[in-house]
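Notes from hallway chat w/ T.B., transcribed later so I don't forget. T.B. wanted the structure written out for a chain they're using in a teaching module, and asked if we could keep both sequence and structure tokens in one place. Agreed to drop them here.
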Amino acid sequence: MSAGSVHGRKWRAPARVSLKPSISGTPQRTNAQMPVKSLLTVDPKKPPWEQSPPLHNRWHPAIPPVATVEEGEIVRVEMVDWTGGQIKNSDSADDVKNVDLTQVHYLSGPLKIPTAEPGDLLKVEFLNLGPLPGDEWGFTGTFHKDNGGGFLTDHYPEATKACWDIEGVYCCSRHIPGVRFPGLIHPCAEQRLLSNPRLQREL
């Protein structure tokens, strides 16, 4: 799983996520007495390749799972932001301007569900989602026209950044006063056939 991202707007949100997978079509009900297993942890002060296990940055079926989750189990998964810590909680946008886009989109996992088979519909309930203690902030920004650019590069050629303080599901920014809004997440689908040319080039 990764922190949510849209080109030009990026969240830095190391998160703790409680996952409860279900393969059947019957909704799983959370039992308050069920234990939560800490499955994957991260240290926000370390780069992605020094995490244990190391993080990855692509959706590909050739990447082996690093942990197993049983159907109905509740687990906690931690993750770093999509840049692997390149963007800082500062008033300068130089880090966005000079971000290394070959080292981005870091993900925790993959996770294996032993009872899942090809064609199954996997339901995952997010029971809790939030920043790690001491790291309660995120950012939005636009890339510099010479480093990534964006859909509106002609109108916004320079790098910009706004840092956001996260409070519960809401955030506010010292760089954009008077704005307060809830965060969002999104799923990502994966092609499973290694014969797919788009997957071959990622090997």
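Follow-up for T.B.: The two ends are 20 Å apart (CA to CA). Might be a good example for the class.
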